[in-house]
Structures are given as C-alpha cells and as structure tokens.
Amino acid sequence: MADTKTPPEVTVAERAPLAPPRRRRSGRPVRATSGSARMAALLVSPTLLVLTIVVLYPTLMALGESLYGAKGLDPETGFISATEPFVGLRNYADIFGEAGERFWNAFWNTTFFTVVTVALETLIGVAMALIMHKAFRGRGLVRAGILVPWAVPTAISGLLWRWIFNSDGIANALIGQQVLWTTEGFHAKAAVIVAEVWKTAPFIGLLVLAGLQVIEKEVYEAARLDGAGPGRQFWHITLPLVKPALLVAMLFRCMDALRMFDLPYILIGAQKQSVETLSMLAQNEASNVRFGPASAYSVLLFLYVLLVALAFVRLLGADLIGDAGPRPPKGRRPRILAARRAEVAA
C-alpha cells in the first residue's frame, strides 16, 4: 500500500509572503477601491446635477440680482429706465441704515418664531411619540389622529385657524373675551405659534417614534430589575438613545421655521409688522418690482439658514452622514496591523 502520511501543517508564518501591491509608474500602489469610487461618483452625478440646477443656479442668480437697484427715471429721457442700475453692495449696506428697520424687524420675528415653535414642538412631539409607542387598545386610531395635522396642507391649515381665531370664532368663545387675533400685536404672534405647533409637532413625534421602536425591550427590563423607575428610564435610556433622531428632527424643523412664509401670510396677512418674516419681506419687495433688495434679503436668509444648520450640526452633534467610528492615529496604525499579523502567525 502506498504511504499515506499526512503532510505537516504549514503555519501562516511559513507561507510565502503575499506579492507586493502593483504600483503605478508614479510609485504609488493602486487602490482597490478606485473602481468603486468611480462607480459611486457616476451614480451620484445625476443627483448632483439636479441639485446644481435647482439650488446652485438660483442662488447665483439671486446673488447677481442683489447687486442691482430698482429701475428709476432716466434724467435724459424722463422715462423709466429700461435697465436696472448697478449699485454693488448698497442693497446689503442699506440694512444698517434707516431703511433696514423693516429688515431687522422681520429678522427678529423669524428668529422668535423659530426658537419658540421648535422648543414647543420638541416637547409636544416627544410626548406624542411616547404615547404612540405605548401598547394599548385603539393605538392605531390615536396614531392616525395625531398625524392628521401633519398631513393637512399648510394653506388649508392657515384658513382653518383663521376661522378659529376670527372675532366671533371658537377661540374667543372659549376664553370669553373679544380678541382680534388677526391684527397687529403679540396676540397675532401667539396665533401663528399655536397654528404652527399644531401643524408640525407630529413631524417630530413621528421621527422620535421611529427612534423609540429600535430600542430593545431587554434594556428596559434590565433597568427595571436594577430598580430604575419610569423617570430614570426616560432620562438615562430613552432620551440618550433617541437623541440622534431627535436632533435630526429639530434641525429639519429649524430650517423649515426659518423659511416660514405661507402660514403667517394666510393666517394674519401681508405687511403686518408683528408677524412679518424674512420670506414675507422678500416676497413683498419682489411683488413691488424691487428685485434688487428682494434678492439681497433672500441671499441673507440663505446665509442665515446655512449658518444655523452648520452651528446645529457642529455644536449639538447631529450626525447626518453617519459615524464611521474612531480611527487610530496615523502613527499607530502600522503598529496595530503588525500586532494583528503576529497574532495570526502565532
């Protein structure tokens, strides 16, 4: 019979070393992900093209239009000039003069609405999410009822609340006083805040509910065995685990509230000093054929929204693109790889 001895096992250390990576003419190794990177760029290019057309082009056009003034009388002919005069940065500089009083009023109104509405929507939205997350009879009906305001179009919501806040509407009937909600004053701000919170609090509740549903029940069971009550479970388990979803919801709501236009425009009306926002101011300037100041206000609003979004992401840690995890310093990576190879060889 033939000898059937088992050949000795060959360890990883005794194997032939792997061939060195193929190098280009420049001396750099060829990356294995270069093909996937090109494929990713090819797949993303249609989206980037659409964003360039829809976002970048109008922004550049608004920036260019903001450098021109309104058409005036031509002193030579006595007729209205056919072209807009180039004024440079005068439209931006006017906001620091007497003509900028209306701009700063709209700026503070926009900031006030954003801070108050987002804070109230966060509190109410988290409460809605906790209610919708509980298991009880009729939960589907409760969820549908909570999400109905978010499904109502903003224009319809504004007309609905205008009827509620009418002089002989339901709001005055409930409080027993005659308040003119849709006129100038702080009560007009209160009407806009109530309508906005009713409309958009379910949005935050929906995103927080999605975060609640991914939390394992074993976490709460372990906390309950350790003696943690409902309050400690909420502050130490629920809130930290739903923080990413909550921060993203707040960021989206801040960006949306800073661009508020249709609700106060329909509910209270145009050119109301107490509720006029930056979007309403830009629309009013454009409707009066003052495209230069309107474009300048639009550019400033765009920068305001951009700065708030960047500050929100940087300060509060809203990770919108995912976290790849901590990476070791560059100097330690070769040592870690060598240690791993030694472990495999052993």
Overall 3D shape: globular
Rg over alpha carbons: 30 Å
Order of helices and strands: HHHHHHHHHHHHHH
Report how far the terminal alpha carbons are from each other.
36 Å
Q: Main traits of this protein?
A:
14 helices, mainly alpha, 346 residues, globular
Give an overview in words:
- The structure is a single chain.
- With 346 residues, the protein is an all-alpha fold.
- The protein has 14 helices and no strands.
- The radius of gyration is 30 Å and the shape is globular.
Provide the fold topology:
Layout: H1 34-65, H2 90-93, H3 101-133, H4 139-151, H5 154-164, H6 170-175, H7 186-212, H8 217-225, H9 230-241, H10 243-258, H11 262-267, H12 278-287, H13 291-316, H14 333-345
Helix pairs in contact: 1-13, 3-7, 3-10, 4-7, 7-10, 10-13, 12-13
Question: Gist?
Answer:
This protein has 346 residues and is mainly α. It has helices spanning 34-65, 90-93, 101-133, 139-151, 154-164, 170-175, 186-212, 217-225, 230-241, 243-258, 262-267, 278-287, 291-316, 333-345.
